[in-house]
Amino acid sequence: MYAENILDSLNPAQREAVTAPDTNLLVLAGAGSGKTRVLVHRIAWLIYQEGISAHGIMAVTFTNKAAREMRGRIEEMVGVSTRGMWVGTFHGLAHRFLKAHWESAGLPQNFQILDSDDQLRVIKRVYREMRLDEDRWPPRQAQWWINSQKDEGRRAAHIEDFDDSFVTTMLSVYRLYEAACERGGLVDFAELLLRSHELWLKDSALLAHYQQRFEHLLVDEFQDTNTIQYAWLRVLAGNSARVTAVGDDDQSIYGWRGAKIENIHQFQRDFSAARVVRLEQNYRSTSTILNAANALIANNAGRLGKELWTSGEDGEPITLYAAFNEQDEARFIVDHVERWIGAGHPRADAAILYRSNAQSRVLEESLLRANVPYRVYGGQRFYERLEIKNALAYLRLLTNRDDDAAFERVVNTPPRGIGAATIELVREHARAHSISLWTAAQQLADTLAARARNALHTFFDLLNQLQRDSEALELADLVDQMLTRSGLLEFHRNEKGERGETRAENLDELISACRQFVPEDPEQPVLQQFLDRASLDAGDGQAEEFEDCVQLMTLHSAKGLEFPLVFLAGMEENLFPHAMSLEEPGRLEEERRLCYVGITRAMRVLYLSYAETRRMHGKESYNTLSRFVREIPAQLIREVRPRAMITRPVTLAGKPRMGEPSPSGFRLGQRVGHPKFGEGVIIDFEGQGSHARINVNFAREGAKWLVLSYANLQAI
Known about the structure:
- The protein has 716 residues and is α/β, with parallel strands linked by helices.
- The chain folds into five domains: 3-102 and 193-280, P-loop containing nucleotide triphosphate hydrolases (Rossmann fold, 3-Layer(aba) Sandwich); 112-184, Arc Repressor Mutant, subunit A (Orthogonal Bundle); 318-380 and 545-645, P-loop containing nucleotide triphosphate hydrolases (Rossmann fold, 3-Layer(aba) Sandwich), CATH 3.40.50.300; 382-430 and 437-522, PCRA, domain 4 (Orthogonal Bundle); 647-716, Beta Barrel (Thrombin, subunit H).
- It is built from 28 helices and 22 strands.
- It has a seven-stranded parallel beta sheet with strand order 11-12-10-13-14-9-17. A six-stranded parallel beta sheet has the order 3-2-6-7-1-8, with helices on both faces. A five-stranded antiparallel beta sheet has the order 21-20-19-18-22.
- Helix 5 (90-100) packs across helix 9 (189-202), helix 14 packs across helix 15 (360-369) and helix 16 (386-399) packs across helix 20.
- The chain starts with a helix and ends with a strand.
- The relative contact order is 0.11.
C-alpha cells in the first residue's frame, strides 16, 4: 500500500491528523466529520509509512460494536489480520490483560465477569448477611455507589466515613461485597479496570513490558473517559508511548455516569508537546442545521473551539411547532412521520428524540393509533434477557462451581423442589465457613429432608454430567444438551402466550450464536471465551439492528447515530433543560451539549416542538419555550403556527360563563363523553376556531385539555 492510497479520500484536516509526526495528538472531531475514518487511516499510516508493528498499536473504542467495525475496516485496508492487535473497549482490553496475568492480579484462572444483574444479586446477598432494610437502603443505590467509587479508583480501605450514616452503611456493604467477590473469583466491570491499573502500579516489570510493547495508543470518544480510564491510559502510556486522542468536548453528555469532560481539557497538559487538529467539515447535515448547532453551543464557556461547516446545500429551515399540549405535539409529529413515509422514505430514516423516557408514552400511543411501526431504541438487549441469563448461568457453573451468582440464579430454575428455606440454609452455611454456595450445598445435602436432598443431588449430577460431556462436544452442541437436559428450554417455552414462544426463539438463537462464535485464543477453553464475550456484550451500550420502523429514543441514546428526519420533542424550560440542571454547577452546559448532539443527528430535516401545557407527575405544568431554541438565530427557524395566534391560559377574560355556550356549541358545566376517557364535565375553554381547545374533568382520568377539532366529544 502506498501513501497516496491511504490519503486519497481524506480532506486536508483529516490528512493532517492521519500523517501527524511521532507526537501526542488531540483530534477535535466534530459531529459527522469522519473521526472513525481518521482513526483507521492513521493506524494504516503508522503501519505502512512509519514502520510501526501492528502488535505495537492499541486502539480503544467505547463499544464492542465499534471495536468490531474498526477491526473489519483495518483488515480491509491494511490487508493483515487484526487478531494479534489490541483493539477493543477499555473493559475488553483490561479483561484481556487480567486473563494473561491472573495470578499476579490475585485472581483464579477462570475468574467470572459479573454483569449488572449478577452484581446486584451479590449485593442483595450481602444485604441479607447484614440484615439491611432494602426499603431504607435500596440495593441499586449501593450498586451505583460501589461502582462510582471504583470508577474513581477507590477501594473500601481508602474511604473514610466521616460519621456519615449513609457512607458508613455503604462502606460496610462495599467491604463485604469485596470479600464475596474475592471468595467466588468474581470481577465486575469497574473492577476490570481498577484491578489492572493496580497491577501495573505494583508490578513495575510488567508495566515496563507493556509500555515497551505499545508504541502508539489511539483512543476514540475521549471526552467520555472517566477517572480510572484516564489514569489507566496515562500509566500505560508512560513517557514513551504516543497517544492519539479523538473526541469532541461539545459532545460530552455522560457526566451523570462518571465521564469527565476535564480529561479532554487536561490532555495537552498531561501529554507533552500534544498537537491539536480540528475536524470541522461535516459530511452529515445541511448548512442550516450546522449553523443552528454552532450558534447554540457557542453559549458554553471554556470550549476548546470548533465551528462545523459543510460544502453541501443550505437545506430547509428548522421547523418549530408550538403545541397546545403533549397530545397535540404527538399528533403533529406522527402526522409528519406519515407524510414522510407516504413520500416513499423508509420508516427507519425517521427518529423522534426526547429528554426524558417518560415522554415516550404519549408518542407511542399516537404511533399505535396511526398504525405506524416503531421501536424504542435501547430496549432490552439479547444477553440481558431473562432466558439467556439463565442459560449462561448454567454454562458459568460448568467453568466455575464457585460462581455464587450463577448458582443462585439456576439452582431452582426450572423449579426442582429446592425452596427458599433450603437456599437460606445453604447461604448461612457458606457464610459461616467462608465457602462457596456450591460447596456448602454439597456439604449440607445429605442432612436435608428427602425432597430437597434428592433435588440437590439431581442438580449436582446434571452439572457433573454436562461437565464430562463438554470435553467431547462442540460448544453449540453442549449448549443444546444443557437447554434440553436441564429442562430450561421446555420451562420457558411453556410460559403463557407469545412470551413463551419468544423466549424459546431466543434460546435457539443462543445456540446459533455459539455456532458462529470464533475463539480468539487457541490456548483458552472455548466455553470460557464465549462466556467472557457474552458478559462484555451484555455490558455494551449499543442496541441491536432493527427492522424498518420509526426510532424513538432519548437524546443520550441518540449519540453516534444519524437520521435524515429528526424530531426533538419537549423543547421546554424545566424539561429541556431539565429543572435540576439549574441547581448543579456545569449541568446546564451539559444539557446544552445534549441539545447540540440532538440537533446534529439530523441530516436533512429537523423539527423542534414544545407543548404550552404538559401533564407531568400528575399535574398540569405551563412551561415557556426552551432557552436552547431561543439561542438559535431566528432566521434559521420557521414557525408552522405563528405565536400570535396562540391564546395562552393566563386569563379568563372573554371566555363564556358557566352555562353559556361557547363558539363550539358546548357550554361550561356540560356533561360530555369521550371514546377513550369516558364521561366528564367541561370546566374551561381556550382559543378560537380550529385552534380552540377544551378542558374536561373526566371521572376516571381527571382533568385533560383536548384540541376540540380532534376531541370527538359527544354531549350527554
